[in-house]
Design brief:
The protein is α/β, with parallel strands linked by helices. The protein is 45% helix and 16% strand.
Length: 282
């Protein structure tokens, strides 16, 4: 299994690939162990965006978050994985998942889709310990333990991390994403968090159902989300406050936390990632 370090930098697909490559170079310099590349629904079967980042960096692990199993071809993806493994041995972690029924035409039998996709990756030479699943529910988490290195849950709270660790067992990788806002003004931080979460995330059944399983009720997930939910899903405050919230995932059983900084207008994520690196990374 690859060594990801305790903390990673999760880079949003909203940023263009040139900017994200520059962010990745700095994240490596700051000491983040892994750079996660958010990809959304893009067809990235050729993994060129990953190759660009690997070429520009020297040792940081580069992970996809995630390669969508409906919009990417697993045979082509396996070929691309082998190319990157040859060029940059043991630096790439393939994050894959089925996404959400609301965003995919023809979405059906997601568990079977995961199984068939993983079978194709097996046949193409992608080792199970070089891939993770974006698993939230119990069945998907067990599959992540059996057929991959583990799980990279998105939009999860420490209560989910605790449950995921129990279902994955002690040996599997658990690397949740945590969104943060470096802002000590509660009202403005909440407003930014709510704008980020309310559409699309609180309109996606996979995420809503997962939140309802882990301490929230219908009053938290309706409309644009309760203050409690927004505060938990998008940590805000100064670097010390946010660091404590990030470390709550580690205390709950995570091996690694991928930190996504919501930037202020006109800025990228790096000011926030710098501030957190000063607090989190020796």
């Amino acid at each position: 299994m690859l060594t990801l370090g305790k903390y990673g930098a999760w880079l949003n697909p909203v940023d263009d690939d040139v900017a994200r490559t520059e962010y990745a170079v700095e994240a490596e310099f700051l000491g983040y162990g892994t750079v996660w590349l958010g990809l959304g629904l893009r067809d990235e079967s050729d993994l060129r965006v990953v190759e660009r980042v690997l070429d520009a960096t020297s040792h940081v692990v580069v992970a996809t978050a995630i390669i969508n199993m409906w919009t990417n071809d697993p045979v082509a993806l396996a070929t691309s994985y082998c190319r990157l493994q040859d060029r940059h041995p043991d630096r790439f972690l393939l994050g894959t998942g089925v996404g959400h029924p609301e965003s995919i035409t023809g979405y059906s039998s997601p568990y079977r889709r995961m199984e068939s996709f993983l079978e194709a990756l097996d046949a193409g030479g992608v080792p199970s310990d070089r891939r993770v699943l974006a698993a939230l529910g119990p069945r998907a988490l067990r599959l992540a333990a059996d057929r991959a290195a583990g799980s990279h849950p998105y939009l999860a709270v420490p209560a989910h991390t605790r449950t995921a660790r129990r279902l994955l067992g002690p040996g599997a990788l658990l690397a949740p994403e945590q969104t943060v806002v470096l802002d000590t003004d509660r009202a403005s931080a909440r407003a930014r968090g709510r704008a980020f979460l309310s559409d699309p995330y609180l309109r996606l059944s996979n995420y809503v159902n997962n939140l309802l399983r882990h301490g929230y009720d219908e009053t938290d997930v309706v409309d644009d989300g309760s203050d409690r939910l927004i505060d938990d899903l998008v940590l805000h405050g100064n670097a010390d406050t946010i660091a404590a919230g990030v470390d709550a995932h580690l205390a709950a059983g995570a091996d690694h936390v991928a930190i996504q900084v919501l930037p202020t207008a006109g800025q990228g994520p790096m000011p926030g990632l710098r501030a957190l690196a000063n607090r989190l990374i020796p």
